[in-house]
Inverse folding.
């Protein structure tokens, strides 16, 4: 059992550089993916807030149609 531990330690020590590179690469990939996900969430929230505040406002225009109404009433009066 003790010799097995010693052999395992020697193997780990021999491959320590490769193991550290793999761990660093894995850590960087995880951070990059987390960053992209966070950026997507922030972008989605920003768009939702913008759409909720600015996009949903409706404008109403008023049209004065009294001239048309008077004209139509004048046509009906002539009949």
């Amino acid at each position: 059992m003790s010799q097995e531990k010693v052999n395992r330690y020697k193997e780990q020590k021999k491959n320590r550089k490769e193991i550290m590179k793999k761990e660093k690469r894995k850590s960087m990939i995880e951070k990059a993916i987390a960053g992209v996900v966070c950026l997507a969430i922030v972008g989605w929230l920003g768009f939702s807030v913008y759409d909720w505040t600015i996009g949903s406002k409706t404008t109403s225009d008023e049209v004065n149609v009294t001239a048309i109404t008077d004209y139509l009433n004048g046509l009906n009066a002539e009949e």
About this structure: DSSP finds three helices and no strands in the chain. The longest helix spans residues 16-55. The radius of gyration is 37 Å.
